[in-house]
Amino acid sequence: MRILVLGAVGLLGTALSATASPDTDLVGLAHHDCDVTDFEQVAAATAAHRPQVLINAAAIPHTRACEVDPVRARAVNIAGARNCAQAANRYRALLVQISGNIVFAPAEHPRAEDEYPDNTDGVLGQSKAAADSAAVAADRLLLVRTACLFGNHADGTPGGLIGRILATPDGATLRMTRTATNAAHTQDVATAIHRLASELHTGTYHLVNPRPTTPYELARAVAARTGRIWNIEPTDLGTPRLLATGSATAAGIELRPLPIALDAYFAAMAAG
């Protein structure tokens, strides 16, 4: 199978390259290779590589970055999804659009795959919700939502919330919310995406660990596994954005429990 990954040096893009099977012809392009905000670049890359599966892992996923440069955030997140959908249609590829729980407003129940994205709070939530809508223009769409990803960038540096925790100096105070969230190891999500794509699934799938956690619990788990010492203080208890995993379960996909995924991640990090 031929796969083209755009946004290939981010957290999930890196994992998609690392978990591809030997019989997969995968090409990964970073922003300097293909700017998803430019349709002509996306179309040219798709024409050059003729993928059966086009994965759009390019995004500006951080709240602060989106608020600092909302024009750029909307271009990457919304126009990028629209351009990938059009290119996938032109070259008859399955589009895999990466999304997240941020598309939903907080709710007391886990949000199902068929619920409409309704987050209107902030540039990140608005732009990612609009990206979901833009991606629907694809003739064949596999929409993947995940949450609180952890893993390494292409240069080996930890990313996501765990990366930010690890970047905090020892002895500092970490104030972490007790609001429930899902989480997921990038390798687990990437492996599931490869399976779904290889079987040419379409529809919406939520790929997260089976049980929710909180950022406060995650920080404590990181400290326990690394021996790092922080003053970890719990803060607010808000309404969560949890994801239901009915479609993934029906397809026989279940990510590893979070403690096992964390153990594997830190064991690999210690092994270098």
Q: How is this structure best described in words?
A:
It is a single chain. Helix content is 41%, strand content 17%. The protein is of the alpha/beta class and 272 residues long. The protein has one domain: Rossmann fold. α1 crosses α7. The model has no long low-confidence stretch (mean pLDDT 96).
Secondary-structure map with pairings?
Blueprint: E1 2-6, H1 11-18, E2 25-29, H2 39-49, E3 53-56, H3 63-68, H4 70-90, E4 94-100, H5 122-135, E5 141-146, E6 149-152, E7 158-159, H6 160-166, E8 173-176, E9 184-185, H7 186-198, E10 203-206, H8 215-226, E11 231-234, H9 246-250, H10 258-271
Parallel strand pairs: 1-2, 1-3, 3-4, 4-5, 5-10, 6-9, 8-11
Antiparallel strand pairs: 6-7
Helix pairs in contact: 1-7, 2-4, 4-5, 6-8, 8-10
Mean pLDDT: 96
CATH topology (level 3) name = Rossmann fold
Please tally the β strands and state the result: 11
CATH superfamily: NAD(P)-binding Rossmann-like Domain
Top-tier CATH class: Alpha Beta
Beta-strand portion reads 15-25%
Largest sheet: 6 strands, parallel
Order of helices and strands: EHEHEHHEHEEEHEEHEHEHH
CATH architecture annotation:
3-Layer(aba) Sandwich
Q: Indicate how many domains the architecture comprises.
A: 1
Judged by helices, strands and strand pairing, the structural class is alpha/beta
**If strands are numbered along the chain, what order do they take across the biggest sheet?**
2-1-3-4-5-10
Radius of gyration: 18 Å
Beginning-to-end CA distance, first to last residue: 30 Å
Summed up, the helix count is 10
